[in-house]
Design goal:
single chain; alpha+beta; 3 helices; 17% helix; elongated
Length: 135
């Protein structure tokens, strides 16, 4: 493995996560998989790519569940990818998410004893409009 030699200070700086500002960002669902939560509830684990202002992308993992406090975020994620009718029929799946653009509301989670980190708080439909070819 090739390495980039760094001093202790440079390595600490590189290891410190740089948080994105809280608020709405353009994103894209990259991956999704159906899983069981720790409490035994059905959930969809998604990976969402968010583009930073400098053009780099950051990936965030999120867990969509129909239980309790996650129900609204799940509904909004389904609206964002255009499968609200399937959601209302009770038939969404992991395959409904990858490849769809969306807007994500990022927040900053602060936990005692841990470094601050970005988390996805909500979803909305993308502001990007697909153009159709005129024939």
């Amino acid at each position: 493995m090739k390495t980039t030699p760094r001093s202790e200070t440079e390595a600490r700086k590189a290891a410190r996560p740089v948080l994105l500002r809280a608020g709405w960002h353009d994103g894209e669902f990259r991956e999704a998989a159906e899983r069981q939560s720790k409490r035994g509830n059905d959930m969809i684990e998604v990976v969402v790519a968010v583009r930073e202002g400098d053009g780099n992308e950051r990936e965030f993992r999120d867990y969509l569940t129909n239980a309790g406090m996650g129900a609204l975020k799940l509904r909004h994620a389904c609206m964002a990818v255009g499968v609200l009718d399937k959601y209302e029929a009770g038939e969404i799946g992991a395959a409904d998410f990858p490849g769809h653009a969306c807007r994500v509301k990022l927040g900053v989670e602060k936990k005692r004893g841990y470094a601050d980190r970005n988390v996805i708080e909500d979803y909305a439909a993308s502001s990007v409009v697909a153009l159709q070819a005129v024939s």
